Amino acid sequence: NGWQATVLTIYPGMFPGPLGHALAGRALEAGRWRLDVIDIRAFATDRHRSVDDTPAGGGPGMVMKPDVVAAAIDAAAAGGIDRPRLLLTPRGRPLTQARVRELVEGPGAVLVCGRFEGVDERVVEARALEEVSIGDFVLSGGEIAAMVLLDACVRLLPGVMGAQASGSEESFENGLLEYPHYTRPQVWEGRPIPEVLVSGDHGRIARWRRAEAERITRERRPDLWAARAGGRIDNSQGFK
Ligand code: ADE
């Protein structure tokens, strides 16, 4: 019943955090998705409740212990239906809207939040963790990254976005950044709304928006623009 997220973290108090508010929070209350939070520390075995240890081979920082992380993952998986197991880490494959859409099609996800220098590589292998990054920058841990991923998923769940066009015109759904938006007043600080948008000519408006979306994508995201150009040859991402 509903899309199920299980988050494994050593900071369970961080959840639901922002996910308890706005769109995601209302969807949570409405039962359109479910959030279970598991405290990894509850699976520590020594008397100090250790979740990390010094890195083999030396070097700075600490590494999350494979036995403790695996026990937490196994508890999350126990009894339930099989879900993708993701590890949030800056070393992961970049998260994409395409992967978000796939996750939303499935039963949910188990999200492991990395801390310290990382997680023992053996648990990544043994529990087939899919390593995912939310961008080329380093956060202090995977918790906020997990929230980002969940927010991206939850808004796409059936019934969550309500009246809003659920995505087809949005950035990335068509491989383009969005066109610029305007609302009243007609003139603000001496700046008028572009004339075309108040022309009432829906064909012209659609063409203007498309041209603006293409210009902005070319300027800001040459990588996305090149992928689209490539897409005309292979179109593996199915852009419109
Ligand atoms: N943990 C730390 N930095 C991260 C990132 N960029 N993406 C996912 N998890 C992270």
TrEMBL record:
It catalyses: guanosine(37) in tRNA + S-adenosyl-L-methionine = N(1)-methylguanosine(37) in tRNA + S-adenosyl-L-homocysteine + H(+). Pfam families: tRNA_m1G_MT (PF01746). Its EC number is 2.1.1.228. Its main location: cytoplasm. GO terms for molecular function: tRNA (guanine(37)-N1)-methyltransferase activity. It is an enzyme of class 2 (transferase). S-adenosyl-L-methionine binds at residues 114, 134-139. It is found in: Cytoplasm. Keywords: Cytoplasm, Methyltransferase, S-adenosyl-L-methionine, Transferase, tRNA processing. The keyword ATP-binding does not apply. One of its GO terms (cellular component) is cytosol. GO terms for biological process: tRNA N1-guanine methylation. Residues 5-226 form the tRNA methyltransferase TRMD/TRM10-type domain. Belongs to the RNA methyltransferase TrmD family. Specifically methylates guanosine-37 in various tRNAs. Homodimer. This is tRNA (guanine-N(1)-)-methyltransferase. It comes from Tepidamorphus gemmatus.
